[in-house]
Design a protein that fits this description.
The complex is a heterodimer. By secondary structure, chain A is of the alpha+beta class. Chain A contains 13 helices and 28 strands. Chain A has 3 domains: 198 residues, Thrombin, subunit H; 97 residues, Pdz3 Domain (Roll); 136 residues, N-terminal domain of MutM-like DNA repair proteins, CATH 3.20.190. In chain A, strands 21, 22, 23, 24, 25, 26, 27 and 28 form an 8-stranded antiparallel beta sheet that branches. Chain A has a 6-stranded antiparallel β-barrel with strand order 1-2-3-6-5-4. A 6-stranded antiparallel β-barrel of chain A has the order 7-8-9-12-11-10. The longest helix of chain A is centred in the N-terminal third of the chain and has 16 residues. Chain B has 3 domains: 215 residues, Thrombin, subunit H; 98 residues, PDZ domain (Pdz3 Domain), CATH 2.30.42.10; 149 residues, Alpha-Beta Barrel (N-terminal domain of MutM-like DNA repair proteins). The chains are: A alpha+beta, B alpha+beta.
Chain lengths: 484, 485
């Protein structure tokens, strides 16, 4: 660096520090999360505490909005203001893991002194310029990067892993640490930075205002309810022949219902073969999309914008005529937990006489590595993915897996010691972890475990199992034998 | 130009003059092989070259491995000179991974001396040496015996007697003979699980005799899935008196010799008079302690029925398992297809194919990367009485107006066509001849209820157009089930 340039920097730095920051920039804060999650393989143990940082911004009501993944598993959460070395303790008030958003409150209201809430804007226009604010890794000071809105579309939200919601793509750099920072246009927040794609350069994504507003409206009553589910499996109807086969008039669009999930409100309204023509007053195209503010986006966006319990009009083409229903939105939390990444919850498990059981959930299957959805054992994937597609009622069951065995003389000679789905215990069908726990409490001389692979069986001496159970817990350092 | 005839003559003289070479039965084979393209089975994939070893076992007849010369278009057989002889594929035996290559040029027979195979199995004291040619150089590597026992064969699903040998490197080529002193004990078929696989001479001799006398006894798959009984608590629960012994039969696979004789829940205590321990091993007079699953294909019993003792309903029963030859084509999802071209059909831009292991092997480490549903079906496959019964999938779609809306379909199992169930490619061929009114309606397996609908009125025209557009000269390969044995 030349001496002249060094001098210029030396002069500029104090000037920058002395300059009064613009209110918008001052309202962008840094979050420190000292997080501790659970060891899914040994679900009675926690993992090491980790420290990571993210960004957030001040909302009306003295709250900070950030990403759920910035605050997940927080043991201690701290806030930091711009150009201020102090750290302020904070608590998570609400979290939406589905939308990767969280509302945080500083424990001391003094943190908010001089910070103005940022106003919320709307969905930005394509090709318009936005500025991302945040504290990305690699530096201490606030970063501002400009970019253009390049796409508005449905995208997988990586944090829950199972949710597709509206998202906006920009070429403004969004790096680790930026997460939770505001994306601003004309002085208003138009989104919350949240994820990038490792394989693509200069591509970042932010959560747009309609999703943010959904969460803020949801928590207005002091409780987070979540996003509605669709209790249907459907196919698009872009095939002209398929539409003719169904005798659909050219003016009628929509998707065909292939399967209806049991216990959903849809199961009382729909039949397989129905064509869902409109939802919430929005006409559904044969590509399964609706017109939404000048974009063609999946019709499930109508559900994403509705709160739970809302009544949505829908039109169905059935038996050659249009029929009208009202669909009340609902959420299937069990199904969400089965297929999604879980946070802030200890994994569910049961240990009995050294046998470790867990529900067959994504949380467990991810132990098979990043490509678990093809790399896990065939029998597990069959029960997880295929069976519910073959028989929708299977969706109501919770398969339980013998994940491993903590060896002891009572179990050392079992035939099966890992990744077996428990079908029956003592002749009783097992459709959940609680049922398994109850079955193993039966007063019987022997516990007979039958697995899903036909004919496979193991037998435990019930008396010896009961006797060894507490000793095994002590031996392997388990303070609790279950989290059901 | 004038010098060329002299060079050829010299080469020829050199071959004639080398009858006294060391290891005069050893040769090198280079096979140009060409498989069908598994994604577009109407065309052949690029030819590839494979190299390996062979041994002369009869005048002009070279023994090598099926894996080396399968799907070959041209085979070169080398002695230790630059010039080669043309080899003609005489026999391929996918069950034992053996192949016979005929060299008709009389000079080859005169330059070589057939080998004598020694039927003895390698024993620990033997100094085992593998031989092969690397270019024109003879290579000999010392090997160590790991064990000999019935093992899964190279090509799918039956247990055959084999030996595992330890090698310093994995570079011993397929087809290399293994000797102990002047005795030839077998040939190397491949390298698996950190060990070289040896096809023992006794098995080779048996097969050669069957090929020559035309009486192929074939091989069998017993057809039981079992679990070991190590746990006394399990043994007590099963009512088994004394120390745990035998194995608990979990499943008896339909279409196998065990079906109709053994039952799930039986405890198999003895096979062929030999007691099974709780791991399912018995002490074989030839191999020592080995898993009972290979009993059927042991050269001492192959082709014969055998007696088993089971514990059923609190007492021991003696039963007879009949001999029943297993053929790959019986499997619902064949683990190996003898026909080099997959059974497929292109109809209306949809590419249908019968699922087999070869299709799954397109995915590297297919057992953890191929579509899980297809893997599951392959794993649960069982022999079928109806040889035409197979799993049919849509591998992919050829984009066209006719298939518009279905472009993303791939690797979907077909459940039905035009109101009838699909249990094999023949159902697809006949199904398209019987539309449902004006439409062809395909039912996909998952999710149950999902359909693909095509316009039956435009089908013939679309079929012609798509075949022409995608340069498909052969819209199907669906020979009768008896073809390609």
């Amino acid at each position: 660096m030349s001496p002249t340039l060094l001098l210029a920097c030396a002069l500029l730095l104090p000037l920058t520090l002395l300059a009064k920051p613009a209110p918008l920039e001052q309202s962008v804060v840094k979050l420190h999360n000292h997080a501790q999650d659970w060891d899914v393989y040994s679900p009675w143990n926690t993992n090491d505490v980790e420290h990571f940082t993210g960004s957030g911004f001040v909302l009306e009501g003295g709250r900070i909005l950030t990403n759920a993944h910035v605050v997940s598993w927080a043991k201690r959460l701290e806030l930091e203001r711009r150009l201020d070395p102090r750290r302020w303790a904070a608590t998570v008030e609400f979290v939406s893991h589905e939308a990767d958003l969280a509302v945080v409150k500083p424990e001391d209201p003094a943190f908010l002194e001089g910070l103005k809430p940022l106003p919320l804007g709307d969905l930005p226009a394509l090709h318009s310029v936005v500025t991302t604010y945040g504290y990305p890794a690699g530096g201490q000071s606030l970063s501002m990067t400009k970019g253009v809105v390049s796409r508005i579309e449905y995208n997988l939200y990586v944090h829950p892993g199972s949710m597709y919601l509206l998202s906006v793509q920009t070429d403004a750099a969004i790096n680790p640490g930026n997460s939770g920072g505001p994306v601003v246009q004309d002085g208003k927040v138009v989104g919350v930075a949240f994820q990038g794609i490792g394989s693509l350069e200069n591509v970042g994504f932010f959560i747009p205002i309609p999703v943010v507003r959904h969460v803020l409206e949801d928590i207005a009553d002091g409780r987070y309810d979540g996003f509605p589910d669709l209790g249907l499996r459907y196919s698009e109807l872009q095939s002209k022949a398929y539409r003719e086969f169904l005798a659909l008039p050219p003016s009628v669009g929509g998707v065909i219902v292939d399967q209806i999930l049991p216990n959903s409100p849809e199961s009382k309204l729909f039949r397989p073969g129905d064509v869902l023509v409109s939802l919430g007053g929005k006409a559904i195209g044969n590509d399964g999309k609706i017109l939404y503010r000048g974009h063609r986006l999946p019709f499930t966006l109508v559900l994403d914008e509705a709160q739970l319990g809302k009544e949505l009009p829908c039109e169905v083409w059935r038996e050659g005529k249009l029929q009208r229903f009202t669909l009340t939105t609902y959420r299937d939390l069990d199904r969400y937990r089965k297929y999604s990444n879980l946070y802030d919850l200890q994994p569910r498990y049961l240990v009995y006489a050294g046998l470790v059981f867990m529900p067959l959930q994504r949380e467990f299957l991810q132990l098979f590595g990043p490509h678990w959805y093809v790399g896990a054992e065939d029998e597990l994937l069959h029960h997880f993915f295929t069976l519910p597609l073959l028989e929708p009622e299977a969706e109501l069951r919770e398969p339980v897996v013998l994940t491993r065995v903590l060896p002891d003389r009572v179990n050392a000679r079992l035939s099966y010691t890992s990744n077996m789905i428990v079908d029956k215990v003592n002749g009783r069908r097992i459709d959940g972890l609680a049922e398994l726990a109850a079955a193993l409490e039966q007063q019987v001389p022997r516990h007979v475990l039958e697995y899903s692979i036909p004919g496979s069986i193991d037998v435990l001496d019930a008396e010896e199992a009961r006797r060894r159970h507490p000793e095994i817990l002590t031996l392997y350092g388990l303070s609790k034998d279950r989290n059901l | 130009m004038r010098t060329i005839p002299w060079i050829l003559l010299l080469a020829s003289l050199s071959v004639e003059a080398s009858a006294e070479r060391p290891l005069p039965w050893l040769c090198r084979l280079t096979a140009t092989t060409q498989d069908f393209d598994d994604h577009r089975p109407w065309i052949k994939a690029d030819p590839v070259q494979r190299s390996g070893a062979g041994v002369v076992i009869r005048p002009g007849l070279v023994l090598t491995t099926a894996s080396l010369v399968r799907s070959s278009t041209y085979i070169r057989v080398f002695l230790d000179e630059v010039v080669h002889y043309t080899g003609l594929l005489e026999r391929v035996d996918f069950y034992t991974d053996l192949a016979l290559v005929r060299v008709e040029d009389g000079r080859f027979a005169r330059s070589t001396s057939p080998i004598h195979l020694d039927p003895a199995l390698p024993v620990e004291e033997d100094t085992l040496v593998a031989h092969w040619l690397e270019g024109q150089t003879r290579r000999s590597d010392r090997l160590g015996l790991i064990r000999c026992e019935p093992e899964w064969s190279t090509f799918g699903g039956i247990k055959l007697p084999a030996c595992q040998l330890e090698a310093k490197s994995s570079g011993v080529p397929t087809g290399s003979p293994v000797s102990a002193g002047n005795r030839i004990l077998g040939i190397i078929s491949g390298y698996e699980n950190d060990a070289l696989q040896l096809v023992p001479s006794r098995l080779i001799e048996d097969r050669l005799a069957e090929f020559e006398n035309g009486k192929d006894r074939g091989f069998a798959r017993l057809g039981v899935r079992y679990q070991e009984i190590h746990d006394p608590t399990l043994a007590t629960h099963l009512g088994l008196p004394g120390e745990p012994a035998g194995v608990l039969l979990r499943e008896v696979v339909p279409g196998t010799p065990a079906h109709g004789v053994l039952l799930p829940g039986d405890i198999l205590l003895r096979a062929g008079g030999f007691a099974l321990d709780s791991s399912g091993m018995y002490r074989d007079p030839v191999f020592g302690p080995i898993p009972f699953g290979g009993y059927l294909n042991h050269w001492n019993h192959r082709g014969q029925s055998f007696k088993v003792t089971v514990f059923r309903g609190g007492r021991e029963l003696e039963l007879t398992i009949p001999w029943k030859t297993f053929e790959y084509r019986q499997d619902l999802v064949p683990q190996h297809a003898l026909d080099p071209q997959p059974r497929y059909a292109v109809r209306g831009g949809l590419v249908f194919r019968e699922l087999d292991l070869r299709y799954l092997e397109q995915w590297q480490t297919w057992w953890k990367s191929a579509p899980p549903r297809l893997r599951y079906l392959a794993d649960r496959s069982a022999p079928q009485d109806d040889l035409a019964r197979k799993v049919v999938i849509i591998t992919h779609i050829l984009p066209d107006d006719y298939t518009s809306g279905y472009e993303n379909l791939e690797n979907e199992v077909i459940a039905g066509l035009n109101g009838r169930p699909v249990h094999g490619l023949d159902n697809i061929l006949t199904g398209f001849e019987h539309p449902l009114g004006d439409f062809h309606v395909l039912e996909l397996e998952t999710p149950a209820g999902r359909r693909v609908v095509l316009d039956g009125r435009k089908y013939a025209e679309a079929q012609r157009r798509i075949l022409d557009h995608y340069h498909i000269d052969q819209p199907e390969h669906a020979p009768g089930v008896d073809a390609g044995r």
